[in-house]
Amino acid sequence: MNIDRLxxxxxxxxxxxxxxxxxxxxxxxxxxxAARPRRDQVSLSDQARHMEAAMRAxxxxxxxxxxxxxxxxxxxxxxxxxxxDEDLARALLRSIAGNAPAS
Length: 103
What we know:
The chain is mainly α. Helix content is about 65%, strand content about 0%.
């Protein structure tokens, strides 16, 4: 099996296109373009800057609000912790719906 001869015309066309490209390209243009370094630039909008600042602040914040946990623990220990029926119902509905509680 001769793989080189499966499509003999495609190779000839590629060589012809390559020769045409070399003939139409001026050597001076190629050197001038290669000598100039390309520089990429990125600019962020004000909204993106604010979003980045918010993300950093969120990442720096603790996952657990220690003060709230300590207060509730103390209330549980003293027997003074009370939850309203309405708050409990909302939390249960959010839990069933798959949403995290707001408090």
